[in-house]
Known about the structure:
Shape: elongated
Low-confidence stretches: none
Structural class: alpha+beta
Amino acid sequence: MPDQQKVRFLKNTIQHYAWGSYTAIPALLGQPTPADAPCAEMWMGAHPKAPSMVEKQGRPVSLEALIDQNPAAILGVSVARAFDGRLPFLFKVLAAARPLSIQAHPDKPQAEAGFARENQMGISLDAPHRNYKDDNHKPECICALSEFNALCGFRRIDTIISYMDKLLPDDETTIRPTLQDALVHSRLQSFFKILMQLPADKADAVVNHAVANAGRLREADPVYKWIVRLHEEYPGDIGVLAPAFLNLITLTQGQAMFLPAGVLHAYLDGTGLELMANSDNVLRGGLTPKHVDVPELLKVLDFSEMVPVVLSPSAVGPCEHVYPTDAEEFVLSVIEVKPNQPYDGHYPENVAILLCTAGNGTLYVGGTGQDIPFQKGQSILIPATAGKYTLSGTAVVYKATVPD
Protein backbone atom coordinates (compact mmCIF):
# COMPACT_ATOMS: atom_id res chain seq x y z
CA MET A 1 0.00 0.00 0.00
CA PRO A 2 1.53 3.38 -1.01
CA ASP A 3 2.30 5.39 2.10
CA GLN A 4 0.52 8.51 0.83
CA GLN A 5 -2.79 6.60 0.72
CA LYS A 6 -2.77 5.90 4.45
CA VAL A 7 -5.39 7.39 6.72
CA ARG A 8 -3.68 8.97 9.75
CA PHE A 9 -4.65 10.31 13.13
CA LEU A 10 -3.66 13.92 13.74
CA LYS A 11 -1.81 15.21 16.79
CA ASN A 12 -2.84 18.84 17.08
CA THR A 13 -1.46 21.95 18.75
CA ILE A 14 -3.48 23.58 21.53
CA GLN A 15 -3.20 27.37 21.64
CA HIS A 16 -3.23 28.62 25.22
CA TYR A 17 -4.63 32.12 24.72
CA ALA A 18 -5.83 33.94 27.84
CA TRP A 19 -9.49 33.97 26.75
CA GLY A 20 -9.68 30.19 26.42
CA SER A 21 -11.64 27.67 28.46
CA TYR A 22 -10.00 25.43 31.05
CA THR A 23 -12.53 22.66 30.42
CA ALA A 24 -14.12 22.52 26.93
CA ILE A 25 -11.23 21.28 24.79
CA PRO A 26 -9.79 18.96 27.48
CA ALA A 27 -13.26 17.43 27.93
CA LEU A 28 -13.56 16.87 24.18
CA LEU A 29 -10.18 15.13 24.19
CA GLY A 30 -10.95 13.02 27.26
CA GLN A 31 -8.30 14.79 29.35
CA PRO A 32 -8.53 15.85 33.01
CA THR A 33 -10.37 19.09 33.74
CA PRO A 34 -9.73 21.80 34.57
CA ALA A 35 -6.51 22.10 32.60
CA ASP A 36 -3.45 23.86 34.02
CA ALA A 37 -3.72 26.61 31.38
CA PRO A 38 -6.58 28.05 29.30
CA CYS A 39 -7.13 25.99 26.14
CA ALA A 40 -8.43 28.43 23.53
CA GLU A 41 -7.99 26.73 20.14
CA MET A 42 -7.03 23.33 18.76
CA TRP A 43 -5.58 23.66 15.25
CA MET A 44 -6.11 20.89 12.71
CA GLY A 45 -4.27 21.51 9.48
CA ALA A 46 -0.97 22.54 7.94
CA HIS A 47 -0.55 26.20 8.83
CA PRO A 48 3.20 26.88 9.30
CA LYS A 49 2.56 28.45 12.71
CA ALA A 50 1.23 25.21 14.22
CA PRO A 51 0.84 22.29 11.78
CA SER A 52 -0.72 19.05 12.93
CA MET A 53 1.64 16.12 13.33
CA VAL A 54 1.16 12.67 11.79
CA GLU A 55 3.05 9.43 11.96
CA LYS A 56 5.00 8.28 8.91
CA GLN A 57 7.05 5.10 9.00
CA GLY A 58 7.09 5.21 12.78
CA ARG A 59 8.27 8.81 13.00
CA PRO A 60 6.34 12.05 13.62
CA VAL A 61 6.25 14.51 10.73
CA SER A 62 4.24 17.67 10.24
CA LEU A 63 1.21 17.56 8.00
CA GLU A 64 2.78 20.45 6.11
CA ALA A 65 5.86 18.31 5.35
CA LEU A 66 3.75 15.28 4.45
CA ILE A 67 1.80 17.32 1.90
CA ASP A 68 4.99 18.84 0.47
CA GLN A 69 6.28 15.35 -0.31
CA ASN A 70 3.33 14.52 -2.56
CA PRO A 71 0.68 17.28 -2.79
CA ALA A 72 -1.47 15.57 -5.43
CA ALA A 73 -1.73 12.32 -3.46
CA ILE A 74 -2.76 14.00 -0.21
CA LEU A 75 -4.80 16.94 -1.47
CA GLY A 76 -6.10 15.63 -4.78
CA VAL A 77 -4.83 16.68 -8.19
CA SER A 78 -7.28 19.55 -8.72
CA VAL A 79 -6.86 20.91 -5.17
CA ALA A 80 -3.06 20.76 -5.39
CA ARG A 81 -3.18 22.61 -8.70
CA ALA A 82 -5.67 25.25 -7.53
CA PHE A 83 -3.93 26.04 -4.24
CA ASP A 84 -0.24 25.70 -5.14
CA GLY A 85 0.20 22.41 -3.34
CA ARG A 86 -1.06 23.72 0.02
CA LEU A 87 -3.94 22.58 2.18
CA PRO A 88 -6.38 25.45 1.58
CA PHE A 89 -8.23 25.33 4.89
CA LEU A 90 -7.54 25.41 8.62
CA PHE A 91 -9.92 23.56 10.96
CA LYS A 92 -10.14 24.57 14.62
CA VAL A 93 -11.97 23.86 17.84
CA LEU A 94 -12.49 27.25 19.49
CA ALA A 95 -13.41 27.45 23.19
CA ALA A 96 -14.02 30.97 24.51
CA ALA A 97 -14.55 31.48 28.23
CA ARG A 98 -13.91 35.21 27.80
CA PRO A 99 -14.67 37.54 24.88
CA LEU A 100 -12.25 37.72 21.97
CA SER A 101 -11.11 40.92 20.31
CA ILE A 102 -13.17 43.01 17.90
CA GLN A 103 -11.59 42.04 14.59
CA ALA A 104 -11.85 41.56 10.86
CA HIS A 105 -9.85 39.77 8.19
CA PRO A 106 -8.50 41.10 4.89
CA ASP A 107 -9.48 39.92 1.44
CA LYS A 108 -6.89 38.20 -0.76
CA PRO A 109 -5.42 41.30 -2.50
CA GLN A 110 -5.26 43.16 0.83
CA ALA A 111 -3.49 40.23 2.49
CA GLU A 112 -0.97 39.89 -0.32
CA ALA A 113 -0.19 43.61 -0.29
CA GLY A 114 0.00 43.84 3.52
CA PHE A 115 2.20 40.76 3.84
CA ALA A 116 4.61 42.03 1.17
CA ARG A 117 4.69 45.51 2.72
CA GLU A 118 5.51 44.25 6.21
CA ASN A 119 8.16 41.91 4.80
CA GLN A 120 9.78 44.86 3.02
CA MET A 121 9.71 46.80 6.28
CA GLY A 122 11.64 43.96 7.92
CA ILE A 123 8.98 43.20 10.54
CA SER A 124 9.54 39.74 11.98
CA LEU A 125 6.73 37.24 11.48
CA ASP A 126 6.47 36.78 15.23
CA ALA A 127 6.65 40.49 16.07
CA PRO A 128 3.72 41.46 18.34
CA HIS A 129 2.92 44.51 16.16
CA ARG A 130 2.80 42.51 12.91
CA ASN A 131 -0.64 42.61 11.21
CA TYR A 132 -0.14 40.19 8.30
CA LYS A 133 1.23 36.76 9.17
CA ASP A 134 0.73 35.34 5.66
CA ASP A 135 -0.50 36.34 2.20
CA ASN A 136 -3.92 34.70 2.37
CA HIS A 137 -7.44 35.87 3.10
CA LYS A 138 -9.51 34.33 5.87
CA PRO A 139 -13.19 33.76 5.18
CA GLU A 140 -14.48 31.58 8.00
CA CYS A 141 -17.41 29.53 9.20
CA ILE A 142 -18.18 29.13 12.91
CA CYS A 143 -20.39 26.20 13.96
CA ALA A 144 -21.65 26.00 17.53
CA LEU A 145 -20.92 22.94 19.66
CA SER A 146 -22.56 24.70 22.62
CA GLU A 147 -24.56 27.90 22.92
CA PHE A 148 -22.30 30.44 21.21
CA ASN A 149 -22.58 34.22 21.53
CA ALA A 150 -21.01 36.58 19.01
CA LEU A 151 -21.07 40.06 17.52
CA CYS A 152 -21.23 40.18 13.74
CA GLY A 153 -21.52 43.03 11.25
CA PHE A 154 -22.83 46.57 11.66
CA ARG A 155 -26.40 47.06 12.81
CA ARG A 156 -28.89 49.25 10.96
CA ILE A 157 -27.94 52.89 11.49
CA ASP A 158 -31.29 53.77 13.07
CA THR A 159 -30.84 50.92 15.56
CA ILE A 160 -27.34 52.15 16.46
CA ILE A 161 -28.74 55.63 17.06
CA SER A 162 -31.47 54.22 19.30
CA TYR A 163 -28.91 52.41 21.48
CA MET A 164 -26.48 55.34 21.55
CA ASP A 165 -29.25 57.72 22.60
CA LYS A 166 -29.72 55.62 25.72
CA LEU A 167 -26.00 55.18 26.41
CA LEU A 168 -24.26 58.45 25.60
CA PRO A 169 -24.24 61.60 27.75
CA ASP A 170 -26.95 64.06 26.77
CA ASP A 171 -24.37 66.72 25.96
CA GLU A 172 -22.17 64.44 23.82
CA THR A 173 -21.32 66.41 20.65
CA THR A 174 -18.66 64.32 18.89
CA ILE A 175 -20.29 60.96 18.15
CA ARG A 176 -23.96 61.99 17.77
CA PRO A 177 -23.46 64.25 14.72
CA THR A 178 -21.56 61.57 12.83
CA LEU A 179 -24.38 59.11 13.51
CA GLN A 180 -26.98 61.54 12.20
CA ASP A 181 -24.79 62.10 9.14
CA ALA A 182 -24.52 58.33 8.70
CA LEU A 183 -28.30 58.05 8.89
CA VAL A 184 -28.71 60.61 6.12
CA HIS A 185 -25.85 59.47 3.86
CA SER A 186 -25.73 55.74 4.78
CA ARG A 187 -22.09 56.07 5.85
CA LEU A 188 -20.93 54.22 8.95
CA GLN A 189 -17.23 54.70 8.34
CA SER A 190 -17.02 58.21 9.81
CA PHE A 191 -18.91 57.13 12.95
CA PHE A 192 -16.69 54.11 13.57
CA LYS A 193 -13.48 56.03 12.83
CA ILE A 194 -14.34 58.82 15.26
CA LEU A 195 -15.54 56.42 17.94
CA MET A 196 -12.44 54.21 17.80
CA GLN A 197 -10.01 57.14 17.70
CA LEU A 198 -11.45 59.28 20.50
CA PRO A 199 -8.79 60.92 22.68
CA ALA A 200 -8.17 58.94 25.85
CA ASP A 201 -9.90 61.40 28.20
CA LYS A 202 -12.95 61.66 25.92
CA ALA A 203 -13.12 57.86 25.50
CA ASP A 204 -12.98 57.36 29.28
CA ALA A 205 -15.85 59.77 29.84
CA VAL A 206 -17.98 58.18 27.11
CA VAL A 207 -17.31 54.63 28.31
CA ASN A 208 -17.96 55.41 31.98
CA HIS A 209 -21.25 57.12 31.20
CA ALA A 210 -22.36 54.40 28.77
CA VAL A 211 -21.53 51.59 31.19
CA ALA A 212 -23.42 53.31 33.99
CA ASN A 213 -26.48 53.66 31.77
CA ALA A 214 -26.11 50.06 30.56
CA GLY A 215 -26.01 48.87 34.15
CA ARG A 216 -29.39 50.46 34.81
CA LEU A 217 -30.86 48.90 31.65
CA ARG A 218 -29.13 45.51 31.73
CA GLU A 219 -32.28 43.51 32.53
CA ALA A 220 -34.18 45.08 29.62
CA ASP A 221 -31.92 43.98 26.77
CA PRO A 222 -28.92 41.61 26.47
CA VAL A 223 -27.07 44.36 24.58
CA TYR A 224 -26.72 46.31 27.82
CA LYS A 225 -25.81 43.18 29.76
CA TRP A 226 -22.96 42.49 27.36
CA ILE A 227 -21.70 46.08 27.55
CA VAL A 228 -21.40 45.70 31.32
CA ARG A 229 -19.68 42.33 31.01
CA LEU A 230 -17.23 43.58 28.38
CA HIS A 231 -16.36 46.51 30.63
CA GLU A 232 -15.65 44.08 33.46
CA GLU A 233 -13.23 42.20 31.17
CA TYR A 234 -11.70 45.24 29.43
CA PRO A 235 -12.34 48.32 31.61
CA GLY A 236 -12.04 51.61 29.76
CA ASP A 237 -11.82 50.05 26.28
CA ILE A 238 -14.04 51.90 23.80
CA GLY A 239 -14.79 48.49 22.27
CA VAL A 240 -17.15 47.72 25.16
CA LEU A 241 -19.76 49.69 23.19
CA ALA A 242 -19.60 47.16 20.35
CA PRO A 243 -22.89 45.39 21.22
CA ALA A 244 -24.64 48.70 20.48
CA PHE A 245 -23.30 48.97 16.92
CA LEU A 246 -22.67 45.32 15.98
CA ASN A 247 -25.36 42.65 15.72
CA LEU A 248 -25.58 40.42 18.80
CA ILE A 249 -26.26 36.84 17.78
CA THR A 250 -26.67 33.57 19.70
CA LEU A 251 -26.07 30.30 17.89
CA THR A 252 -27.56 27.15 19.38
CA GLN A 253 -25.76 23.81 19.05
CA GLY A 254 -25.50 22.83 15.39
CA GLN A 255 -26.15 26.31 13.99
CA ALA A 256 -23.42 28.13 12.07
CA MET A 257 -22.48 31.51 10.65
CA PHE A 258 -20.28 32.46 7.67
CA LEU A 259 -18.01 35.50 7.85
CA PRO A 260 -16.54 36.81 4.58
CA ALA A 261 -13.59 39.20 4.48
CA GLY A 262 -14.11 42.65 5.97
CA VAL A 263 -16.94 41.81 8.38
CA LEU A 264 -16.27 43.23 11.84
CA HIS A 265 -16.98 40.64 14.52
CA ALA A 266 -16.13 39.34 17.97
CA TYR A 267 -16.75 35.95 19.54
CA LEU A 268 -18.05 36.44 23.08
CA ASP A 269 -18.32 32.97 24.63
CA GLY A 270 -19.04 29.35 23.83
CA THR A 271 -17.43 26.39 22.07
CA GLY A 272 -17.51 25.94 18.32
CA LEU A 273 -15.83 24.57 15.26
CA GLU A 274 -14.12 27.17 13.12
CA LEU A 275 -13.29 26.34 9.50
CA MET A 276 -11.44 28.95 7.49
CA ALA A 277 -9.04 29.59 4.67
CA ASN A 278 -5.51 28.68 5.75
CA SER A 279 -4.55 32.03 7.25
CA ASP A 280 -3.76 33.71 10.57
CA ASN A 281 -4.33 37.31 9.47
CA VAL A 282 -6.26 39.28 12.09
CA LEU A 283 -6.75 43.05 12.30
CA ARG A 284 -7.96 44.07 15.75
CA GLY A 285 -9.89 47.11 16.91
CA GLY A 286 -10.26 46.58 20.65
CA LEU A 287 -11.12 44.27 23.55
CA THR A 288 -7.63 42.79 23.60
CA PRO A 289 -4.18 43.30 25.12
CA LYS A 290 -2.74 42.38 21.71
CA HIS A 291 -1.73 44.78 18.95
CA VAL A 292 -4.55 47.08 17.80
CA ASP A 293 -4.21 48.93 14.49
CA VAL A 294 -7.36 50.94 13.87
CA PRO A 295 -6.09 52.73 10.72
CA GLU A 296 -5.26 49.39 9.07
CA LEU A 297 -8.54 47.90 10.25
CA LEU A 298 -10.43 50.79 8.64
CA LYS A 299 -8.85 49.90 5.27
CA VAL A 300 -10.33 46.40 5.20
CA LEU A 301 -13.77 46.85 6.80
CA ASP A 302 -17.09 46.46 5.07
CA PHE A 303 -19.22 49.32 6.43
CA SER A 304 -22.51 48.00 5.11
CA GLU A 305 -25.48 47.49 7.39
CA MET A 306 -25.81 43.74 7.86
CA VAL A 307 -28.38 41.22 9.02
CA PRO A 308 -26.46 38.06 10.02
CA VAL A 309 -27.66 34.83 8.44
CA VAL A 310 -27.81 31.78 10.70
CA LEU A 311 -26.92 28.63 8.78
CA SER A 312 -28.57 25.27 9.35
CA PRO A 313 -27.13 22.30 7.46
CA SER A 314 -28.89 20.74 4.47
CA ALA A 315 -29.13 16.99 3.97
CA VAL A 316 -26.99 15.52 1.19
CA GLY A 317 -27.54 11.91 2.22
CA PRO A 318 -29.04 9.80 4.99
CA CYS A 319 -26.17 10.60 7.40
CA GLU A 320 -24.61 13.85 6.18
CA HIS A 321 -25.71 17.48 6.37
CA VAL A 322 -23.70 20.30 4.74
CA TYR A 323 -23.41 23.93 5.81
CA PRO A 324 -23.83 26.17 2.74
CA THR A 325 -21.18 28.89 2.20
CA ASP A 326 -19.56 30.63 -0.75
CA ALA A 327 -16.03 29.65 0.26
CA GLU A 328 -13.77 28.15 -2.41
CA GLU A 329 -11.31 26.73 0.12
CA PHE A 330 -13.56 24.69 2.37
CA VAL A 331 -16.90 23.09 3.07
CA LEU A 332 -18.13 21.86 6.46
CA SER A 333 -20.54 19.00 7.03
CA VAL A 334 -21.78 16.99 9.99
CA ILE A 335 -22.13 13.20 9.82
CA GLU A 336 -24.19 11.20 12.28
CA VAL A 337 -23.81 7.43 12.14
CA LYS A 338 -25.93 4.86 13.95
CA PRO A 339 -25.60 1.07 14.25
CA ASN A 340 -28.02 0.53 11.36
CA GLN A 341 -26.95 3.57 9.35
CA PRO A 342 -23.27 3.77 8.32
CA TYR A 343 -21.81 6.60 6.25
CA ASP A 344 -20.20 5.97 2.87
CA GLY A 345 -17.63 8.59 1.91
CA HIS A 346 -17.75 9.82 -1.68
CA TYR A 347 -15.08 8.76 -4.14
CA PRO A 348 -13.16 10.26 -5.78
CA GLU A 349 -12.84 12.83 -3.03
CA ASN A 350 -10.56 15.67 -2.11
CA VAL A 351 -8.57 15.69 1.09
CA ALA A 352 -10.68 15.68 4.26
CA ILE A 353 -10.15 16.06 8.00
CA LEU A 354 -12.65 14.31 10.26
CA LEU A 355 -13.24 15.22 13.91
CA CYS A 356 -15.37 13.03 16.17
CA THR A 357 -17.26 15.18 18.68
CA ALA A 358 -19.44 12.46 20.24
CA GLY A 359 -19.53 8.66 20.50
CA ASN A 360 -17.21 6.21 18.80
CA GLY A 361 -17.04 4.05 15.72
CA THR A 362 -14.90 2.39 13.08
CA LEU A 363 -13.43 3.85 9.92
CA TYR A 364 -13.00 1.30 7.13
CA VAL A 365 -10.94 2.40 4.13
CA GLY A 366 -11.65 0.20 1.13
CA GLY A 367 -8.68 1.30 -0.95
CA THR A 368 -6.15 0.40 1.72
CA GLY A 369 -7.97 -2.22 3.78
CA GLN A 370 -7.46 -0.16 6.92
CA ASP A 371 -10.00 -0.80 9.68
CA ILE A 372 -9.52 1.93 12.30
CA PRO A 373 -11.43 2.39 15.56
CA PHE A 374 -11.99 6.03 16.54
CA GLN A 375 -13.59 7.88 19.44
CA LYS A 376 -14.66 11.29 20.66
CA GLY A 377 -11.91 13.87 20.39
CA GLN A 378 -9.88 12.13 17.69
CA SER A 379 -9.19 13.78 14.35
CA ILE A 380 -8.26 11.92 11.19
CA LEU A 381 -6.67 12.85 7.87
CA ILE A 382 -8.29 11.24 4.82
CA PRO A 383 -5.93 11.62 1.83
CA ALA A 384 -7.50 12.12 -1.58
CA THR A 385 -6.00 8.82 -2.79
CA ALA A 386 -7.30 6.75 0.14
CA GLY A 387 -10.32 5.59 -1.85
CA LYS A 388 -13.84 4.85 -0.67
CA TYR A 389 -14.30 4.80 3.09
CA THR A 390 -17.09 3.95 5.53
CA LEU A 391 -17.90 5.21 9.02
CA SER A 392 -19.90 2.95 11.30
CA GLY A 393 -20.85 2.88 14.97
CA THR A 394 -22.66 5.52 17.03
CA ALA A 395 -20.92 8.84 16.54
CA VAL A 396 -21.12 12.47 15.45
CA VAL A 397 -18.31 13.44 13.09
CA TYR A 398 -17.62 16.82 11.51
CA LYS A 399 -15.90 16.80 8.13
CA ALA A 400 -13.80 19.59 6.66
CA THR A 401 -12.97 19.22 2.98
CA VAL A 402 -12.65 21.21 -0.25
CA PRO A 403 -15.63 21.78 -2.58
CA ASP A 404 -15.57 19.77 -5.80
